[in-house]
Every structure is written in structure tokens, then in C-alpha cells.
């Protein structure tokens, strides 16, 4: 099946997408590192990759998203790349996703012609028919990853000289690689690690181009005329790669259908912001790891929160908090299968599925790994010279008291729609409530995982209240009346403690007990219904954060000079916090102010409607790991808050928030 060429999208990018400055290198030369916002994100729900605007794959880890990279130019320009595009041209005319999909389309113009390139991590019909999968633990879907990065090219006008360069660098560029032909002609070659090749993935390149091999690099260069088609497939498993352009086009079509069939399940309002909701939902789905049900915090490691700074972390893991918050977003849009799979993942890591009991950690590997030892890769320059590059994450063994509440809140949201709790999950939930009861009076490192001394963070206490409140409601669903009564009483005790010690003389909730510092996480007090929206302390807190914890209107997590986070340097505005503020402003009936802020935040989206962790308020530059699940879930909640407020205003009814009282 040959795919028809789609015209490039006529929707203009947001203004900042054109004017966002590229960071300058020494001497004013163009920085070799592209802006973070220029990357495109691909996924097959088993791994992810990032592609620069120049058409170069600069981040790919196989076979899992937390495996060592084989293309890592994002973190060091010599750490591996895979580019295809016109020779001598690095700035495309247009880029877009095919609507309703994670298929990237790039349109190129040269002096002599036009090219259209389409990129995808291939998905197809479920293929383990006669034997069971050795990696999947969750219920099989209709579609599955084929472990192929597919790039198709079509010359649509004139003639264009095409160049392909594939230069992997194994194990984060710690091990060299080499190519060799694997067929009698020039259309197939394999790359292996020079050292201990059996311990590293073998990459197979299949194409209708004539490949030349030059050490680490496989390259091709040819002149295409109008109507010519090219495909290049990079694969790392037993699944057969396409052998012709027609087969490649069929795989692209199947992949498009996979994404569209999934997005069609969702409930997306007929609204000008619908495209942002759909792109955020697709991004969250792309950050799931389908074999286990885990959900990544982000696709990358060590993209800096501070330009050329040290706030560089590995986010390729499943945070309990981030994952359960993400389920809020998907649930809001009517997408619930991901919740089923994630709760099964929780049952796995807690030991409930095999009769054991393990305390819930802050985060896990996507396969359920518990040890995520942090390591620095000193041989890599880092993105734009931001060092160190880190793999693993030392926060895995921190004590963070908010995780019990976030998980129980998500389970309650899930259980409300079904009026039941999965049998294997009830012992896990009971254990989380017991952990909250045991530890809520103790200090912790908080939602922001500070590396300074533990503190009595107010938001952690609030989330412990959420754990007891939702636990009591889940106990009612389970028919455990005595637990419900007991836990409700303890929830009341926690609330009284917070209101006595976590509110300043202005009636504003504070970051930690005994301090007047503000913290954006306190916006969760209204979003989780710790206090109702009409409580004066909620209004005071929301407006204080809006007026005093912002730079150029964007919300900071906290003031670094007021918070012992164990790190040096400044950071950008955390985008999730600004979207939280949108939702909170709607809750206190400041809808006009909320809408203005939301419009501004949407204008900061990347040209492909993606978001990193932070935004630099002055320039709109994206900072931190990319794309960030936290940001996209908060976008969904904020946009739906605005839309529902508009609908209620039109019908003169009472506003019902996106997160209804729990």
C-alpha cells in the first residue's frame, strides 16, 4: 500500500516558535545543540526517540527507553546520530505530526526541488500469536511495537540530492561500533558494538538506497527526481524490516491507524484548544511502557533545568507521583486502559501479585527494577555543555510522603467509575494508608525531591491527608466500614495539624512548617479538595502564588534562596506549576485571569505542541527533560477547567471543576 502525500499543515506555529533564540556559543557562532523545543518525539510504547529539526535522530535507547543510548548526539555531538534529508540543507520548510498520530512529517525545500520525509517507530498488529511474549506482563493489545525506526522519503517536485548518515555509538558512547554488509547487495548492513557485542543490541539497516560503510558510519547519497521514493529502516529485533518502499508505506499506514484508533476512544471537546489536548494525550500514551504498564516521567536524561548548570537528572523512570497524576489527565479525556495497566504494574512492584509485600518506592525502572543507582558520565559534554550527564536517579530511595496520596487519589478516581477495586490491589492500598498513618508526622524531602535536609513540607502533609481521605472512601467501596471510620478520623487530625502549623498570619498556606516561604505545590490543596474553593485560605494562597511566586507571569516551584534544595544556581519556571495555577484560578472564580494565563502558556508550546519541564520566563526557551509527562497532564487539566468554565458560563449553570470533589 502506497501512502498518499499529505500537504503540510497550514496552521501557523505559535509566535515564539519562530523567534525563540538559539543559544549562542562562544564567539557568536551558531550553537551546535538545537533548542530543546525543536525536537520531535516518537514512540512505539516500548521505546522513544527524539529527532531534531535538521532530520537527525539524536536520542534513541534500545530495546527499552531506559537502556543505554545508541544515538546520543543530544548530550554530546559525537555520541551518535541518524540523519536523512537533503544534502547541504538543515532547516526544513515545515514539520508536523500526521493528525491523530506520532508520525512525524518534515517538508524540505532546496533550490531544485521538494522532499517529504516521514518518520515513525513502527507499530503493527499483535504478532505473538503462536507463542506468548517473553516481555509483556499486561493484557495484550490489538497493536504492538515492531522495534523498527522507519524513515520514508518522497520527492514531490523537481530534483533533490538526498543524504543519509547513520552513525551509532553504543552504551552512551562508551563503546565504539562497526558496520558490515549482511546481504550480497548494498541495501542491508548491521552495526555491532566492538566490545562484548552480545551484550549490546545489533542494529540492522535495510533500505532501497546503496549504502557505503565508513567505519562507524553507514552513509548514502543519491539524486531523487519527482516521484522517486526511498525508505530506510533501522531495526533491533527479530521482526522483519520492510524490503520495499511499498512495504514501508504499509507499515507507516498501520502505525498511523494504531494511533488514530487509540485517540478515537477519547472524549475531546469541540474547541480551538482541542489540538493541544490531543497532542498531550498522545504524548502521555507515548511515554507508557506497554509490556509492564509503567509510565515514564520523560523520554530523556540530563537536559538541563538551568542553562549550562548542574540540575540535570535522568527522568526515564516510572515515578509513582508522575504516573498517577498523568492518569488524572487521561481519565479527564475518557482514556482509562492505561490506568488498568499501571495499577497492575503497582501490584507487580508491591509484591501483591505473588503474595509478597514491598514498601512502595518513589520510582521504579520500567521493568519494575528497584535499584536505580545514579552514575555520572564524565566523558559526555552534556547538552550545551551542561554537566554532569547522569544516568540512574538517586532519588529512588528518598522518603517522599506525597506518593501515598497521589496513588490512592488515582485509584479512587478509577474505582468511582467502576464501583469496585481490583482484588489484588486492595492489600496494596491498605498498606499505603498504613504508611501514611505511620509517617505523616515525620519530615520528608517533598514533592520536589530536594537534596537538602528533610523538612515538614506542608504539601506532603496535605497529600497524607489525601491518602487517608481517599483510603476511607475506598474502604467504603470495599465494604470495610471500620477502616473507613478510623481513617476518616485520622484524616481530620492531619487537616487540623496543617491548618495549625502550615498557615501564616496572612492566611496563606506555606511551603513548610515554621516558614513564610511559598511553594507552587500548595495549589494542590484546592485541586485535591483539601479545602473547598470558597475557603478564604485557598483564595489567599492561590493569589499569593500568582502574585509573589512568578517571574513574567510564570510560576516557580519555590524561591531557591528560600529553599534548601541542596543545589546551586537558578532554574526556570516549572510549566506544570503554571498550568496548576490556571486550574486553581478557575476554582476560585478568577476565570478571566486563568484564561489569559492559559493562552500565554499555550503560546509557549513547541512548534509540535510539546513541552519540556520548564520554561525560561524571559525568552520562552524550554528547559529540562523532554517531553515531560507532568507538564502535559497539567495542560489537560487546565484546558478542561477553562472549557468547562466557559460552557457553564454560556449555560448560566454552576461550574463543575475538571477534578470533581473526591
In words, what does this structure look like?
The protein has 662 residues and is of the alpha+beta class. It has 2 domains: 15-263, Beta-galactosidase, Chain A, domain 5, CATH 2.70.98; 274-651, Glycosyltransferase (Alpha/alpha barrel). The chain is 31% helix and 19% strand. The protein has a 15-stranded antiparallel sheet that branches. Strands 24-25-26 form a 3-stranded antiparallel sheet. Helix 5 packs parallel to helix 15 (629-651) and helix 13 runs parallel beside helix 15 (629-651). It is globular, with a radius of gyration of 25 Å. The two termini are 50 Å apart. Mean pLDDT is 90; it is low at 1-27 and 658-662.
List its traits.
31% helix, 662 residues, Glycosyltransferase, Beta-galactosidase, Chain A, domain 5, alpha+beta, disordered N terminus, 15-stranded antiparallel beta sheet, 3-stranded antiparallel beta sheet, 2 domains
Describe the SSE topology:
Elements: H1 15-19, E1 40-43, E2 48-51, E3 56-61, E4 69-71, E5 81-86, E6 94-97, E7 104-109, E8 113-125, E9 143-167, H2 170-173, E10 177-181, E11 188-193, E12 203-207, E13 212-214, E14 217-225, E15 229-235, H3 245-263, H4 274-286, E16 288-289, E17 294-295, E18 318-319, H5 320-332, H6 337-350, E19 363-364, E20 375-376, E21 390-391, H7 402-418, H8 426-439, H9 458-478, H10 481-501, H11 524-527, H12 536-548, E22 550-551, E23 554-555, E24 573-574, H13 575-587, H14 591-603, E25 614-615, E26 622-623, H15 629-651
Antiparallel strand pairs: 1-2, 2-3, 3-4, 3-5, 5-9, 6-7, 7-8, 8-9, 9-14, 9-15, 10-11, 11-12, 12-15, 13-14, 16-17, 18-19, 20-21, 22-23, 24-25, 25-26
